[in-house]
Amino acid sequence: MRLAASALAMLAPATLRADLDRAALIPLEGRTVTALALEGHNVTRDWVILREVKTRLGEPLSVVTVVADIQRLENLAVFADLGVRAEDDGAGGVRLAYLLREMPAWIPVLGMVYTEENGFSVGPGVSFTNLAGRDIALSARAYFGGTRQYWLRASWPWVAGD
C-alpha cells in the first residue's frame, strides 16, 4: 500500500510550479505529523490557507495529500512560489512546513481603450489580487479622453464560506 501511494505521488501533476521534492517526502510517509507550520505569508490569512490544506496534525503523512495540498494552494492564485519542508522530529514523527511567497497584494495599472465611435481613452486603475487576505480579487479602472468609462470587477470564490 505504501509503495503504491509513493508511486502515485511520483506521477502527480508535473505542472506544479511549487518547489516540492517528492523524493524527500517519501521516506517520511506514514509517520505521524507532529507539527504543521505556515511560513512566509504576510497578507493571506491562516484560515484561508488551512482550508486548502487537508494534511492534519496527528494523522499519518501522505505524500499524495501533500501534493494535492500544494495544488489547491496554487489554485488560490495568490502565491508566487510554494514549497514544503518536512523533517524528522526526533521522536518518530514529522514536522511539516508549507513555505509560501505571496504575489503583491495590489498592482497599479495604466489602461487604454479604443472604440471607433469615441477614439482613445486612457486612465488609471488598480488591481487587488488578495484583498483583505481572503483571496478576493478586485479590479477598478477609470478611462478618460474620447469617452468616460468606469470599470469594476470582483471575484470571491468563497463568498459563502466552506
Short structural summary:
With 162 residues, the chain is α+β, with helices and mostly antiparallel strands. It is 19% helix and 41% strand. It has a four-stranded antiparallel β-sheet with strand order 4-5-6-7, with no helix packed on it.
Mean pLDDT: 86
Q: How would you describe the oligomerization state of the chains in this entry?
A: single chain
- Give helix % range: 10-25%
- Total beta strand runs: 7
Largest sheet: 4 strands, antiparallel
**Helix-strand sequence:** HHEHHEEEEEE
Strand content: 35-45%
CA-atom Rg in angstroms: 21 Å
The chain-level structural class is alpha+beta
Secondary structure elements and their pairing?
Elements (H helix, E strand, L loop, with lengths): L1 H9 L11 H4 L7 E7 L6 H5 L12 H13 L3 E10 L5 E9 L3 E10 L3 E13 L4 E10 L3 E7 L7
Parallel strand pairs: 1-3
Antiparallel strand pairs: 2-3, 4-5, 5-6, 6-7
